[in-house]
Give the backbone structure.
Amino acid sequence: MSTFVTSGLIADLALAALALEAALIGWLRRSRGGEALMEFGPFIFAGAALMIALRAALVGWPETVILAALTVAGVAQFVDLVRRLQK
């Protein structure tokens, strides 16, 4: 179990689940005439960036990669927040 976490596989699994969730939500919304992927894209993008930062920390990637991923997640979360407040 320890190897599953420290190897980064847990983050890979979370990223795969996030991609599946995004595809499913996008398909459901499109088939029902709802919002397109761009409506919830920043939220999904922020989650993916956080999972990349987690994976980078678990496998020992350089701190600059972790910082970049966290920055991208923060910007995406801010964009999502602004879009939600404008509605």
User: Anything to note?
Assistant: The chain has a mean pLDDT of 90. Helices lie at 2-6, 9-31, 37-59, 63-86. Residues 63-86 form the longest helix (24 residues). Residues 20 and 40 are 14 Å apart (CA to CA).
